[in-house]
Amino acid sequence: MVERPGALSFEELRRFAEHEQERDVSRFHANRHGDAVTLESILARVKPLPDANYLTLHADKDDFHVSVPLEPLRGQGLVVYARGGGPLGAENHGPFRFLIKDPTACQTSELDDCANVKYLSRIELTARKGRDTRPTTEAEHAAIHAAEGHQP
Ligand SMILES: Nc1nc2c(c(=O)[nH]1)N[C@H]1C(S)=C(S)[C@@H](COP(=O)(O)O)O[C@H]1N2
Ligand SMILES: [Mo]
Measured in angstroms, how far is the CA atom of residue 8 from the centroid of ligand 1? Predict the structure, then answer.
């Protein structure tokens, strides 16, 4: 639900204006690195329709999806696309990684740590909540964290 659907490359993101960039995301997340553009700068280009209430983040690589209410996310979302002047590598969950500036602990709200989608392929806007494969039980969550090799 946007006026102007589109695709963005590393080169295009690199040319976003300086006020649309968020350099060095380790300022928000000590163990995460790279340079981002704000979600707001992307929304300004695609122009959400008035009825767009949910934003869904799709990672086709490992079939992980997160759908969150658009309004509280605005001003919080970042898309990390670069590291050390070049594209964000797969070892850093690139080529694109979504980050919420100030997420809550896993499973404590819609805008939680689990919504920091790695290997982001697509952002979709809809009227109703879209696909969300975030873990819902402790066991599921422990399994996904173990598979990703990080601490719960
Ligand atoms: N594509 C993808 N993104 C993902 C996940 C995943 O399994 N696949 N796990 C999520 C969960 S549950 C958490 S808590 C965070 C962990 O991010 P970190 O490894 O940078 O700490 O990534 C989120 N993003
Ligand atoms: Mo998580």
Answer: 22
Among 148, 150, 151, say which to mutate for ligand 1: greatest number of ligand atoms within 8 Å of CB. Answer: 148
Q: Report CA(4)–ligand 2 centroid distance (Å).
A: 32
Task: Give me the tens of pLDDT residue by residue for the chain, a chain 152 residues long.
Answer: 999 999 999 999 999 999 999 999 999 999 999 999 999 999 999 999 999 999 999 999 999 999 999 999 999 999 999 999 999 999 999 999 999 999 999 888 999 999 999 999 999 999 999 999 999 999 999 998 888 766 44
Q: Looking at ligand 1, which residue's alpha carbon is closest to its atom 18?
A: 150
pTM: 0.96
Q: Atom 10 of ligand 1 has which residue's CA nearest to it? A: 114
Strand partners, 67: 56
